[in-house]
Specification:
This protein has 2 domains: about 1-125, NAD(P)-binding Rossmann-like Domain (Rossmann fold), CATH 3.40.50.720; about 150-315, Dihydrodipicolinate Reductase, domain 2, CATH 3.30.360. Helix content is about 30%, strand content about 20%. It has 12 helices and 14 strands.
């Protein structure tokens, strides 16, 4: 049985890790870390866990808590883990970080986009970017996994087959993305109040969203050359879900069937990536509450472009579910253990 600790257990992503692991056959949560709710029963903070989780939350003293578990999930704000993680902690337990602290390999790029000093840059080279569909073998050997961001996960899996095979021109790539409000976290913010969000849709982080360098870095690895994109996220009035629509010019002539065979080839053995049938567009409602990503594409012969689409739950495959998927790999379990729940509908 894998002994688990969670830092940031009372945030949306942390709570989702708890929800998934309560049904995991090979994992047991040993402590629920929460600085804001220390000494309060977890089942009172999230009433959906009433009589399911009876334990109280504990303060987030990582060094001492690390000695009690095999793996720690850190669902914390940017900068927290980098400020407290040490070689001593990593020598005794594995860490899966849901923040951006170890996702970007260039510390200067991280500090530029996140506006904070990185406190443990010496650990960045060791961190494995935890996109299982691309880095599966490296994750299996890792002590420190940088769990990908939600927008980067959906964007990468939607675009990867065609950029990897050189069928799209990376210099023309435009990514339009929409997210539900849970992507902003559980903290109280005026712009996320009901009256501010309901009956409204808006762009935010235009030309400045922090996931941009992460997306560019991972797509650059796939393309074998530097990739710069235009990325614009939007906030929509729903709890969960991400929808990505990416546009790019074809780099060479291609028939739709040829492109479909590429998608099928890349994802035929991927349990969590579902390539939809021709003409079916991904929708967030068909992946809600699950670790699945639905992807598809459509060519536009009139413009010479291809439109690549993806939908997923930002709290599951975009955060907690992917983190558990990484944990499974790190401990030699089947990748989908505890993650085979079907999407919720309605």
């Amino acid at each position: 049985m894998i002994k688990v600790g969670i830092i940031g257990a009372t945030g949306y992503a942390g709570g989702e890790i708890v929800r998934i692991l309560t049904g995991h056959p090979d994992a047991k949560i040993c402590w629920y870390g929460s600085r804001s709710y220390a000494d309060r029963p977890f089942g009172e903070i999230f009433q959906n866990f009433f009589r399911i989780v009876d334990e109280k939350c504990v303060d987030e003293e990582l060094a001492s808590l690390a000695e009690q578990v095999d793996v720690i999930f850190t669902a914390t704000p940017q900068g927290y883990l980098a400020s407290v993680l040490t070689e001593e902690i990593l020598s005794g337990t594995k860490v899966i970080d849901l923040s951006a602290d170890f996702r970007i390999k260039d510390v200067a790029v991280y500090e530029q986009w996140y506006g904070i000093e990185h406190k443990s840059p010496q650990l960045i080279p060791e961190a494995v970017y935890g996109l299982c569909e691309r880095n599966r073998e490296a994750v299996k050997q890792a002590r420190l996994v940088a769990n990908p961001g939600c927008y980067p996960t959906c964007t990468f899996l939607s675009v990867y087959p065609l950029i990897k095979e050189g069928f799209i021109d990376p210099d023309t790539l435009i990514v339009d993305a929409k997210s539900g409000t849970s992507g902003a976290g559980r903290g109280a913010k005026v712009q996320n109040l009901y009256c501010e969000v309901n009956e409204n849709i808006k762009a935010y982080g235009v030309a400045s969203h922090r996931h941009t360098p992460e997306i560019e870095e991972q797509l650059s690895y796939a393309a074998g050359r530097p990739v710069t994109i235009s990325f614009t996220p939007h906030l929509v009035p729903m709890n969960r879900g991400i929808l990505v629509t990416a546009y790019a010019s074809l780099a060479k002539p291609a028939k739709e069937q040829e492109l479909r065979e590429i998608y099928d080839h890349y994802y035929q053995n991927e349990y969590f990536v579902r390539v939809l049938k021709k003409g079916v567009c991904p929708e967030t409602r068909w992946v809600e509450g699950s670790n699945f990503v639905d992807v598809n594409f459509q060519t536009d012969p009139r413009t010479g472009r291809v439109i690549m689409m993806g939908a997923m739950d930002n709290l599951v495959k975009g955060a907690a579910g992917q983190a558990v998927q990484n944990m499974n790999l790190m401990f030699g379990l089947p990748e989908n253990t505890g993650l085979q729940m079907a999407p919720l509908f309605p």
